[in-house]
Amino acid sequence: MSALPALVSGMPVVVRTGEPLTHCRTPHYLRGKRGVVVRPLGRYPDPEALAYHKPGLPPRVLYQVEFEAAEVWGERLCEPSYRITADLFEHWLEPDAAGHRRSPA
Amino acid sequence: MSDHQHDHAHAHAHDHGDHAHPPHGEDAHAPVDDLDSYDPESLLMEQALRELLIEQGVFTAEDIQRQIDLTESRTPALGAQVVARAWVDPAFRAALLADARPALESAFGLDLANTPELTVLENTADLHHVVCCTLCSCYPRNILGIPPAWYKSREYRSRVVIEPRAVLREFGTELPAGREITVVDSTADMRYLVIPLRPAGTEGWDEERLAALVTRDSMVGVAQALAP
Predict the structure, then answer these.
(1) Catalytic residue at B137?
(2) Which of B42, B106, B136, B158 is labelled catalytic?
(3) Is position B109 within any domain?
(4) Is-contact A85 B185, C-beta < 8 A?
(5) Fewest CB atoms within 10 A around its CB: which of B32, B36, B115, B186?
């Protein structure tokens, strides 16, 4: 593991898909959605292991990630023009090659 | 009380007569802070587990009481003092926004070492933050104390991420046109506290007077600070 978080503010990311049957902190409504990193929030033991009495080490980087609401829900299902942020662990995020860098709100 | 509990001891057969109960926790209007509304089986299980852990020496009854006292000593009044200080003291405000826990520990003499990480977000004339936890009930308890029942309700948690303006309106909060909204879903180890926008007409006010305008709901972001 490198000393610095791999993702930085403004970097476009996509949330991994997947349906683990075990505990995880990635809400279903954000899986597969595209956003940008607001900032790294530090390293924490992996809750997916802690939930089963394992140490969850090494700790994983947690990122605050920002999404446009229309990207998350589709324009017809939500109110117009607002953003949602959520805190997601590094192993649920990958760089979004098709995305554009932008400054989070 | 005992009759009531007795009645509900049968509730989990799923069908007990003339009306259906939603599963526990799904009725957004239920007084979930009322002990009567908790499932008696869960209460019994909590008691059994607690007694076992005390018996095994994992912790003492005194430890539990100390933790309850600590939790109950944290109320939105503390958050209101923090916000009022941030409004009048630019150096404290900057430290709070940069790294909240150390700033709070040194300014208010708090020991936050064994409490979750905290980020403070500032509402401005351009951007309004509203905090939720869609997965459960994560809340900045180390500053605001115990979360209100509505914060934990499925209705709030599911609606605020889809129609934040409608939810805010139901709290009596009408934001000016053009003010952007960010809904902050606290899904992991970080907790969030909002500094509401300082109300107009409070120039020159001292901290104590300002703190009286800062409500719990304004620090979650479902409301603005009170008008003077």
Answers:
(1) yes
(2) B136
(3) yes
(4) yes
(5) B36
